[in-house]
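Encode chain A's predicted structure.
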Amino acid sequence: MSPDSNSTRHDRESVARAALALLDEVGLADLSMRRIAARLEVQPSALYWHFENKQELLADLADRITASIPVGSDDVLATARGIRDALFTHRDGAELVLSTYALQLGSARAQSALTEALRGEGVADAEERGAAVLHFVLGHSTLVQQRMHADSYGALPHSDELDVTAGLDRVFTLGIEALAGRVSSDRNAR
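Encoded structure for chain A:
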């Protein structure tokens, strides 16, 4: 079996770039191998020369999304914010990374960065707390992206009257600090 004639100009990199562009346009629910192939003007079977299956492609996309996460920080809150910011760089980025993380696909860059930051802060059970913090970051980021997406379609009641993400940064900070075993300086001041 040989790739069709158009696929010779495509490689793993171009397939992933096309998939990320489509993710931004149509979202995770509508990202399909058939749609990616149509974008690249190849038959869907040609994509399987570069990725064994859709799960492998999604894991690669998750790794690309998380590649910008800063590693080596001793500040767990800054690391968590870096992860959140990376997830927000693509439509449904948080959901995509969450789904591949749940299936143990792709790299563990985000969890490694959190574990390292927690160790830098002197946390004894850094590995377990790193997993807990990552679960919170993924869940919180998915919630925020879903609210923003629903708001963009006018699907939230009274969304024209309020900022659908108001207060969520404070919630994020409180969650990270609680899971990291820190007490917020704002709370101490009260």
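The chain has two domains: 1-51, 68-183.
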